[in-house]
Amino acid sequence: MNNGGGAAPTGCYKCGRPGHWSRDCPSNPNPNPNPNPNPNPNSSSNYSKPNSSAFKVSGDGYGGSKRLQKPSEKPKKVSRARPKLTPELLLSDDGIGYVLRHFPRAFKYRGRGHEVSDLGNLIGLYAEWHSHLIPYYSFDQFVHKVEQVGTTRRVKTCLGGLRERVANGGDPTKLHEPPVEHNTSNNGE
């Protein structure tokens, strides 16, 4: 009694054999993957090619084999190199210079009893600096990279010179200016 009205499924619809699905079919039903049924494109055929410009195909007209021969004509997408956190970037105006210019004005110290909120505000300022300097790093990666770059000799000497300048009354926001010497009388002795 067949009430379904159709044959039972056989398995593979490509070859019709049971025991496997079409995605796992071991036989290739089309041994010639070329969509052009004419094996000799230069021979004359029973049909004529259309002459309308709407039907013209670039290349030789048979699947665009000229494109395969000249891949250099395609404009390659130039990948933009992401800037890495280097000592030059850390010591630039967007690096430490940003911290020295913006943090003193933006951070409001509230004092005793407000340490948690003060720390949160300070971390928020560092997160803002992170998104301004290198936004594609996570904040944890950014902190780790700043710690790594901060141990280099160039950064240490620049920060040491900055500390001396501030201790002598210099302006900390002028990161790249040479320190002004106040002891002119010692040079003549």
Q: Could you explain how this protein is built, in words?
A:
With 189 residues, the chain is mainly alpha-helical. The chain has a domain at 87-167. 35% of the residues lie in helices and 0% in strands. Helix 3 (96-106) runs antiparallel to helix 4 (115-133). The termini are far apart. It is found in: Nucleus. Pfam families: Swi3, zf-CCHC. Belongs to the CSM3 family.
> Strand content of the residues, in percent?
under 5%
End-to-end separation in angstroms reads 121 Å
What are the low-pLDDT stretches, counting only 5+ consecutive residues below 50? none
The helix count comes to 6
Q: What is the string of SSEs from the N terminus onward?
A: HHHHHH
| Number of separate strands | 0
CA-based shape: elongated
Search tags:
single chain, 189 residues, mainly alpha, 6 helices, Csm3, zinc-finger
Task: Detail the topology: elements first, then pairings.
Blueprint: H1 65-69, H2 87-90, H3 96-106, H4 115-133, H5 139-150, H6 153-167
Helix pairs in contact: 3-4
Compact summary:
By secondary structure, this protein is mainly α. It is built from six helices and no strands.
